[in-house]
Amino acid sequence: MATIGDVARAAGVSLSTVSYVISGKRPISQPTRERVERAIRELAFHPHAGAQALASARSNVIALMVPFRPGINVAIIMEFVAGVVTAARAFDHDVLLLTQEDIQEIDRVAARSLADAVIVMDVESEDPRLPSLRALDRPAVLIGVPEDTSGLACVDLDFAAAGRLATRTLIDAGHRRVALIGASRERFERRANYAVRMRDGVVEQAARSGLEVHVLPCEPTYAGGVDAVDQLLAEDPGVTGLVVHNEAALAGVVDALDRAGRPVPAGMSVVAINAANIAEGLRHPVDSITVPGHDIGGIAVQMAMARLQQDSPGETRLVAPTLTPHGSVAPPR
Amino acid sequence: MATIGDVARAAGVSLSTVSYVISGKRPISQPTRERVERAIRELAFHPHAGAQALASARSNVIALMVPFRPGINVAIIMEFVAGVVTAARAFDHDVLLLTQEDIQEIDRVAARSLADAVIVMDVESEDPRLPSLRALDRPAVLIGVPEDTSGLACVDLDFAAAGRLATRTLIDAGHRRVALIGASRERFERRANYAVRMRDGVVEQAARSGLEVHVLPCEPTYAGGVDAVDQLLAEDPGVTGLVVHNEAALAGVVDALDRAGRPVPAGMSVVAINAANIAEGLRHPVDSITVPGHDIGGIAVQMAMARLQQDSPGETRLVAPTLTPHGSVAPPR
DNA sequence: TCCGTATATCGAAGCGCTTCGAAATCACCA
DNA sequence: TGGTGATTTCGAAGCGCTTCGATATACGGA
Q1: CA–C1' span, B198 to D10, in Å?
Q2: Which domain holds residue A246?
Q3: pLDDT, tens digit, for every residue of B195-236?
Q4: Cα-Cα-Cα-Cα dihedral sign, residues B159, B160, B161, B164
Q5: Is residue B55 part of a domain?
Q6: Contact (Cβ atoms closer than 8 angstroms) between residue A218 and residue A147
């Protein structure tokens, strides 16, 4: 494996000149630079990551903490991850994978100077990792918005806006009785921020039109969706517009509506919030606000990089939702 | 951030003694070791990863190349990843994430000494990465089995055995007409090894009982499953046992059988191969051979670690399948 | 008592890079 | 022609750790 010394010898310059050619931190004359670059190419030189990290106090690695606990929405997680990796590479950084099982991993990675910055996914309202993250001596970016964001950098979909958008779509189509099939009761009880913000958005938008919303928590399974529909139609058969914020239950919801003689969209208009590539796999495709996981992951990296340049104050960035129609919203009959 | 020098001073020993206490590569007397360990604890010392990598020529990092291309089975990917990370941490290694977009990433990571070993997921029969992997100057483990495994370390589910097991389950229940709804035509045409091996296992097991198998490729969507069932029932209504090796289509298959008056299991017995946590989300749960992604990921790490100790010859490890019944197999009516 | 052997610890070199200050070179003008 | 400042390159120190050979100490046997 060639070293920077080999390159220097081949190009007939000093070690430091090669280093400056690579980093661009000092001006190097055109001819010298060309000789060095040629030597680098010919020797297929790649700087030793450890040596670089040691000398420069920068690892060029971002740590990414991914939730692996069961029940998590895998598709969307993968999108985030892909977005983070892609963006990180664009900044010439690599991504180190951490699991959520052990909070201490954050500190270990920082203390060992393994990573320059940390991105944490799936942050909850009262996340146990918040103290560590606040105390961390390097940039941290949270995907998800905790209750108290002071001093933190956060990014997420604007779930309140998504709730409003979904609801407005139904109302604009003429629906006057609207329901929300949301996250599981457990999520609401733990005050999972996305679930709460979403619900508040739906309720608020409906209130603007003088409407009330029937809110049903729902287990994140096919059966959960079926149960929620059964319950809804029993308690409130006049509902004609439905917002579904529960990806795993969506198929069950659609099927149950079908079997109840309320097929989408003739018998029930539906708007869902979910990961991309879900809406198409259903018996009846559903208008969707997809979580732009790739974009959000990219923004998280940008925020981390910015904070690596200069430490910035806390900031929460909420990405605006967009709705993709699939013909599941029709006027009420 | 404390350095090993701080620890040495605090414990009143030399630098090298601290290093040997940490690595255990030379015997250190009990009292000395205790003093050093106390100093480490009190200073919260963590060795600098870059310095360690530089001095020891070992980064303690495994690179993991994950497929992010669309259409991939996300759930199972996540299981692999989780298995790899968990196992890696058990060996005191971290995991660096690479995407499949760029083959050169493997070489870059190796040349920079960023990773000690590489694990590559979703390897195809004629994978474009095979040359790089064969030429690599450090251990590589493939998840998936290419056509020519010479000199390579591979691990995967034993799909042929899975095919035999699924088929035997149906035959033992009394079924004499059996079909396979498999991967997409495109997968078969590209000779995706898992698709082919699975099919061969099914066909072989059936042949042992003197039976033939109706094999249908199937698009990996809900609609694909519906289409496959329609086609099957049209062409071969006498089929009573079905093996489904197409996770995304499974829901469509089950629903289509339902609507065709052939509900599972009364009208059709079904065994599926899929990721865990899929079978339960269906209208009718289905007997499943789940891909043990977590285990396979762990084995991949073990293989990499073993090859870090001493280079071993090529080896392919196939994990035996296990079937979890969910009541979707009944005697033919 | 002295030597050989085993055990425990030390010291220094070196891993491959970055970075700072200084040296060398050059152009230009007085 | 010498001096000045700007431009380009060099040299050496140092980042924090590992590891090899050497030293120091202890112990048992002759």
Answers
A1: 65
A2: 159-291
A3: 999 999 999 999 999 999 999 999 988 789 999 999 999 999
A4: positive
A5: no
A6: no
